[in-house]
């Protein structure tokens, strides 16, 4: 809080008693306030529709059912503004019921002083702001989680039970939310993958690794096996340790890599065949041409020259093919 800010207080008085003068407990040197006094909850709701307030003080007088009805009436209209109950007497059961219904605080009028009122204003406004920030954070998380196009889920690290699953995961795996919440993370693994998964879970739990990344095989509802890259982070979910999982289906990506590896293997085989199998008879042909050049008469030189020229062209073609094959493999 800052001293130059004016805090607007709505005081709902008890019509059965003299209006409570809360302004008498407020010191402008500590906090600047503007108090509006209303005599009924219906008037208060009309006032709240037209103006903004930082805090509401609800004077209930004596504890009783009528007071709870007034509180319910206010909270049914707004829960964004802290409501502090003012009462004539301490009644533990009644005060607990007020707090359970949504009241922010419960004060006894006879025990009030300037410090108590100031502390109540500051504490309840700040706490409500903090709660509002937490709610906004939770809402942002919920939106990011449930609207993410990537499959995501949260599981209990002790029981391995799914405790939240987004729509993308439901679509990818074919299970409804109700089905997921009755399952464990082992239920979407292939049988062969479960020991690997349990080992990973044990190691991350033992070492309290906040994040983890790995590739696993998962199984959809229709028994299809998919390759999934998992990104795992340790979080708190409903005050319990849990893991947030983001799953990326890389099945097609791995198939493409395997296809490229198979292609490279074939290209290597082609290159070896070109450089060894095909060239071998060519080398022999070229050797025979050389022998013919050494032993035949001049009239054969033209034919030998043509044979040699063809052999040289054949050799050059094989070399170019081999070089191109090598470049293709390197680029991939």
TrEMBL record:
<keyword id="KW-0597">Phosphoprotein</keyword>
<dbReference type="InterPro" id="IPR011006">
    <property type="entry name" value="CheY-like_superfamily"/>
</dbReference>
<protein>
    <submittedName>
        <fullName>PAS domain S-box-containing protein</fullName>
    </submittedName>
</protein>
<dbReference type="InterPro" id="IPR035965">
    <property type="entry name" value="PAS-like_dom_sf"/>
</dbReference>
<dbReference type="InterPro" id="IPR001789">
    <property type="entry name" value="Sig_transdc_resp-reg_receiver"/>
</dbReference>
<dbReference type="Pfam" id="PF00072">
    <property type="entry name" value="Response_reg"/>
</dbReference>
<dbReference type="GO" id="GO:0000160">
    <property type="term" value="P:phosphorelay signal transduction system"/>
</dbReference>
<feature type="modified residue" description="4-aspartylphosphate">
    <location>
        <position position="59"/>
    </location>
</feature>
<dbReference type="Pfam" id="PF13426">
    <property type="entry name" value="PAS_9"/>
</dbReference>
<dbReference type="InterPro" id="IPR000014">
    <property type="entry name" value="PAS"/>
</dbReference>
<feature type="domain" description="Response regulatory">
    <location>
        <begin position="8"/>
        <end position="124"/>
    </location>
</feature>
């Amino acid at each position: 809080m800052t001293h130059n800010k004016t805090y607007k207080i709505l005081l709902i008085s008890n019509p059965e008693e003299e209006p409570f003068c809360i302004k008498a407990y407020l010191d402008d040197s500590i906090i600047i306030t503007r108090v509006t006094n209303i005599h009924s909850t219906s008037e208060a709701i009309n006032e709240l529709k037209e103006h903004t307030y930082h805090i509401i003080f609800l004077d209930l007088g004596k504890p009783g059912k009528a007071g709870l009805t007034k509180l319910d009436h206010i909270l049914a209209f707004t829960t964004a503004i802290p409501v502090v109950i003012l009462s004539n007497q301490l009644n533990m059961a009644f005060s607990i019921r007020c707090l359970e219904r949504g009241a922010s605080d419960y004060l006894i009028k006879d025990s009030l002083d300037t410090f108590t009122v100031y502390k109540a204003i500051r504490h309840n406004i700040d706490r409500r702001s903090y709660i509002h920030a937490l709610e906004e954070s939770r809402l942002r998380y919920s939106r990011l989680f449930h609207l993410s196009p990537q499959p995501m889920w949260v599981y209990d690290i002790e029981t391995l039970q799914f405790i939240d699953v987004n729509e993308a995961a439901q679509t990818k795996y074919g299970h409804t939310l109700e089905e997921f919440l009755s399952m464990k993370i082992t239920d979407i693994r292939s049988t062969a993958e479960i020991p690997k998964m349990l080992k990973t879970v044990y190691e991350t739990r033992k070492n309290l690794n906040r994040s983890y990344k790995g590739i696993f095989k998962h199984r959809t509802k229709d028994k299809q096996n998919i390759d999934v890259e998992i990104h795992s982070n340790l979080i708190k979910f409903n005050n319990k340790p849990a893991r947030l999982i983001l799953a990326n289906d890389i099945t097609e990506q791995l198939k493409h890599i395997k296809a490229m590896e198979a292609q490279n293997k074939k290209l290597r085989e082609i290159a070896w065949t070109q450089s060894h199998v095909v060239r071998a008879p060519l080398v022999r042909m070229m050797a025979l041409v050389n022998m013919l050049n050494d032993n035949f008469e001049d009239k054969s030189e033209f034919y030998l020259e043509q044979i040699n020229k063809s052999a040289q062209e054949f050799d050059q073609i094989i070399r170019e093919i081999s070089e191109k094959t090598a470049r293709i493999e390197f680029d991939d």
